[in-house]
Structures are given as C-alpha cells and as structure tokens.
Automatic annotation (TrEMBL):
Catalytic EC class: transferase
Function in brief: Aminotransferase that catalyzes the conversion of aromatic amino acids and 2-oxoglutarate into corresponding aromatic oxo acids and L-glutamate.
Phylogenetic lineage: Bacteria, Bacillati, Actinomycetota, Actinomycetes, Kitasatosporales
Residue ranges with Basic and acidic residues bias: 1-12
Complex and partners: Homodimer.
Modification sites for N6-(pyridoxal phosphate)lysine: K223
Any GO MF annotation of the entry: pyridoxal phosphate binding
EC nos: 2.6.1.57
InterPro entries hit by this protein: Aminotrans_II_pyridoxalP_BS, Aminotransferase_I/II_large, ArAT, HisP_aminotrans, HistidinolP_aminotransfase, PyrdxlP-dep_Trfase, PyrdxlP-dep_Trfase_major, PyrdxlP-dep_Trfase_small
One record GO biological process: L-histidine biosynthetic process
Catalytic activity: an aromatic L-alpha-amino acid + 2-oxoglutarate = an aromatic oxo-acid + L-glutamate
Annotated family: Belongs to the class-II pyridoxal-phosphate-dependent aminotransferase family.
Aminotransferase class I/classII large domain: residues covered: 33-348
Designated name of the protein: Aromatic amino acid aminotransferase
C-alpha cells in the first residue's frame, strides 16, 4: 500500500466536531431526551399519511425544485418564489449561505456562545470566524458585533432566540444594528425557534427582510414543526441571495418525504401551534419553578432553558441522566435543557432542586 494519503484542505484541521444531543438511554425505567431541542409530540395525523404515501415512490428522485413546498411557503409568508430557497435543514442552508459569500481571507461574525454549527461551517469555508462574546446577561452584544465589522466581513449570524441561552434581541436594538451593517454584508437572522417567541418586542425577521436586501431569514421544520429527522429548512432572502442558494444546493437534497411532511405540517398549523402553546406554558412553569428554587435563569423565548453551571455542568448532566433525562452539557459553561414532556420536565426540576440544596 502507498505511504501517501490524499491531500486534504488544511482548513479542515482542528474543526470541532458537531456534538449531537445524546439519545435517551434504552432499557431504563424512564428515558427522556431533552438534549436536542426537538418537539416531543408525535407527527400530526395528516403528516404521517403524506409521508406514507410519498414512501411508496422513493425509487424516484424527489422534486429538485421543491415546487409544492415553495408554493406553500410563498403564500404563507407573502414572499415571491424567487425569494425562497429550501435545503437539508436550516443548518444545510446556513452552510450554503457561507459557501455563497465567504472564502479564505473573509470574515464571518457571530455571537459566542451560539449555535455550535457556526464555527464548523465557517472553518470549512476557509473564512475566519470572528466570535463576539455574549453580554454578561447571555444576550447578543450587537454593538460589539457591529464594531467587529471590517472590510473583510461577508456574513453575520444573529441567532434569535439564541441557542443555547434562549435569549433574544428586540426590535429597536436589532434595527439599530442593521442600520450600522454595510449593504454588502449579508446578515442572516437564524430564527430556528421563531414559533416559540411570545415577546411582542421581538421582531419577525421576515418583516425586517422586506426592506433590507442584505437580510436573509433562516427557518426550519425541525423544531416547532417536529420534523427534525426529515431534514428540511428554508431561507427567505432577496433574489440574488436566494439564487445563490439554489446554485450551492446539493442536488435533490430535500427528500420527497420531507417535502410532503413539511406541506402537511403547514396545513395542520392550527393544531401544531396549539402544541407549541402547550410547550410555551410548560416553559413558563419550568422557568418559574427554577427561579423559585433560587436558580438564575436567563429569559428564554425558545423551547429550552439555560443554566449557567460552570464547573458543575458535567456533574449536573450526569445527575439528570441518572434520573432518566438526558440534557445537553457544555462543559465548564452550562447545560441547555429542552422543554419536553411534562414528566421529563418534572424529573429535570427534581434534579435541579436537589442540586440547589447541595450549594
Ligand atoms: C439556532 C439553530 N439554527 C439552526 C439549527 C439547525 O436546525 P435544522 O438543520 O435541523 O433545521 C438549529 C438546530 O439545533 C439551531 O439551534
């Protein structure tokens, strides 16, 4: 065998691997997964039927243009088809946006800590990641992010609500920030958790995009819509951006199953939003209970809560697991806990109560 191996791009060295939320352990008395911000509900009945019908055709390639879904989205959001692009989850679309804008020598700005895919997809492109620390209250520091813009900046992510802290930026500060960003820098408003927002001061990115050609909104069917396993997300942006997304798409990336499920979910939206409403009530119950126990919990507008546990993060996650819930630790920083089934949330609260007593 030859001693040499294929030459790989130097940029790939040291890329952090994406850590998926750990699955719930099989075989235990209870096992709940609160580690990936998924929706705990089973698919809506119409969704199962659509997917089952599509399944009988998967010897065929899917509709590459995602025409049915695109039409549905165009109507739903009141945007032209030429302003829409779909992809393999919103993380797939985010990667396409970087590919379309940034390469070696360019800079991509995002808050930190934020969605863990940002450093990975930035580094793959060869662009330099500029990480701007969150404020002490775990919120995007938009002034510092605007100050970080240089003539090499090509793309800025604003994750609203932010993963993993759940915190939001509000209308006035976001508009002020957008006013400071040069028109040739793309701002990506990552709204993966948009449906869980109840604060009226948090702007809908789709409204902001309408007046700003350099703003693009990312949405997903993985969270509120409960289709994480089917991989479909989309972007709403002006024509040159949406066209660039079509150029950078993996051909046939979004399966027909995913397309049909997304359409059926949009059509079952009333019921779906009822479920989201229940999760939002659960979120309030969990946050109130944690605060009553003495925990400091940042205001969350997403389907998860953030506990800044520092050095005790790993021990807390282990204690949760012992009791039957899997949470998402960020060692040395904190744990992110998805709002899930009531029983799962109760277990998490019990562990949080026990931990509090040990302090
Ligand atoms: C902020 C944010 N953006 C995007 C995604 C990607 O979701 P998907 O690729 O499943 O659409 C996630 C998933 O965790 C997320 O938290």
């Amino acid at each position: 065998m030859s001693e040499t191996s294929p030459k790989l791009r130097a940029e790939l060295e040291g890329i952090p691997t994406y850590k998926p939320g750990k699955p719930a352990a099989a075989g235990g008395p209870v096992a709940y997964k609160l580690s990936s911000n998924e929706n705990p509900y089973p698919p809506l009945p119409g969704v199962m039927e659509s997917v089952t019908a599509a399944a009988s055709n998967f010897n065929r390639y899917p509709d590459m243009a995602c025409a049915g879904l695109m039409n549905e989205l165009s109507e739903r959001f009141g945007v032209p088809l030429s302003h829409l692009a779909t992809g393999t989850g919103s993380v797939g679309v985010a990667q396409q946006l970087i590919q379309a804008t940034s390469g070696p020598g360019d800079e991509v700005i995002y808050a930190w800590r934020s969605f863990e895919a940002y450093p990975i997809i930035t580094q793959i492109s060869g662009a330099r990641a500029v990480q701007v620390p969150l404020t002490p209250g775990d919120v995007h520091d938009l002034d510092a992010m605007a100050d970080a813009i240089t003539d090499r900046t090509r793309l800025i992510f604003v994750c609203n609500p932010n993963n993993p802290t759940g915190t939001v930026v509000r209308r006035a500060e976001l508009e002020r920030f957008l006013d400071r960003v040069p028109g040739d820098v793309l701002v990506v408003l990552d709204e993966a958790y948009r449906e869980f927002i109840r604060d009226p001061e948090v702007p809908d990115g789709v409204e902001l995009y309408r007046k700003r050609p350099n703003v693009c909104v990312l949405r997903t069917f993985s969270k509120a819509y409960g289709l994480a396993g089917l991989r479909v997300g989309f972007a709403i942006g002006h024509e040159p951006v949406a066209a660039a997304l079509r150029k950078t798409a993996v051909p046939f990336g979004v399966s027909q199953l995913a397309q049909e499920a997304a359409i059926a979910s949009l059509r079952a939206e009333d019921e779906l939003m009822g479920r989201v409403g229940s999760l939002v009530c659960e979120r309030k119950r969990v946050v109130d209970a944690l605060r009553a126990l003495g925990w400091t919990v940042p205001e969350t507008q997403a389907n998860f809560v953030w506990l800044r546990l520092g050095e005790r993060t790993v021990a807390f996650a282990a204690a949760c697991e012992e009791h039957g819930v899997v949470v998402r630790p960020f060692p040395g920083e904190g744990v992110r806990v998805t709002i899930g089934e009531t029983e799962a949330n109760d277990i998490f609260l019990k562990v949080a109560e026990g931990f509090r007593k040990e302090l």
